[in-house]
Amino acid sequence: MAEAYPWQDSLWQQLAGRKQHAHAYLLHGPAGIGKRALAERLMASLLCQRPTAHDACGECKSCLLLKAGSHPDNYILEPEEAEKAIKVDQVRDLVSFVVQTSQMGGRKVVLIEPVESMNVNAANALLKSLEEPSGDTVLLLVSHQTSRLLPTIKSRCVQQACPLPSEAMSLAWLAKALPDCAEEERIELLTLAAGSPLAAVNLQAQGVREQRALVVDGVKKLLKQQQSPTQLAEGWNAIPLLLLFDWFCDWSSLILRYQLTQDEEGLGLADMRKVVQYLAQKTSQDKVLGIQDWILAQRQKVMSKANLNRVLLLEALLVQWASLPTQK
């Protein structure tokens, strides 16, 4: 059975309590809040032969087949490799599944995640099935970034925003999920995960706090001219590019915020507060805006899986960062 998260309770009651279901749902929200688990729970409930008021029964033939991964009326579409696109051929296979008759005489349920990883041809191939799926078929689309979806995809679905839990709820859940971490570490992980508790657990598993310490130390050495952009770019090989761009994007925003408000409470995590404050005092606002625009443009390329030269890109970032502190 898919895990049920406490922050999804009221949304689940609303979805599970429907007498009639839409033919397509778009479940969307930030990554790391349990949208996939919600979709799997709904999928199980829709396929179950004896659903209760709240969930799939877990014991009927349909539930047992789903648990074994061999339900004939269930189809999951995702990239063949992590971080890659869903291809048009994969969607064509899905379309031929949608037009078939249900083998168990009930519904057919399709789960697509993440739907924004379909390229344009793949997305267009899906449109017909979204508009008029044959028989009693329900499509569950999971998206972490609806801004990357074709409007024609969005308009054919019932759009359902999934909630980001409150900080208190996230920390209570993380206390059980990461019992070996101190509360301070859990707060830091949740901050680094932009409030998404499942993302916080993933970051902990990939050693994000150690990675962050390495980057922060490198940035400080860069500003003191103790290490060159080239040395740092090569030394950060194991750190995901998107994570690096997220952090530099965050730091440039914090610098701007401090320049505008002089609010020492808004300097972000403790590890970079002094650096953020120093750069805010030593750099012109125009310069910070310029580097922020550049970082956002490069981050977009990283997210769209452009073929980038990693070391050169990081060198370019660090050369600009090193040039920030020029007395205003």
Keywords:
328 residues, alpha/beta, Rossmann fold, Helicase, Ruva Protein, domain 3, five-stranded parallel β-sheet, 15 helices, 5 strands
Please summarize what this structure is.
The chain has 328 residues and is of the alpha/beta class.
The biggest beta sheet, please?
Answer: 5 strands, parallel
Mean pLDDT value: 92
What spatial form do the alpha-carbon principal axes imply?
A: elongated
State which percent range the strand residues make up: 5-15%
Helicity level: 40-55%
Number of strands: 5
List segments where confidence is low: pLDDT < 50 over at least 5 consecutive residues: none
Give the number of domains.
Answer: 3
Cα(first) to Cα(last) distance is 59 Å
CATH superfamily of the largest domain: P-loop containing nucleotide triphosphate hydrolases
| CATH first level of the largest domain | Alpha Beta
| CATH architecture grouping of the largest domain | 3-Layer(aba) Sandwich
User: Tally the helices: what do you get?
Assistant: 15
- The fold-level CATH name of the largest domain is Rossmann fold
Q: Assign the structural class, choosing from mainly alpha, mainly beta, alpha/beta, alpha+beta, or little secondary structure.
A: alpha/beta
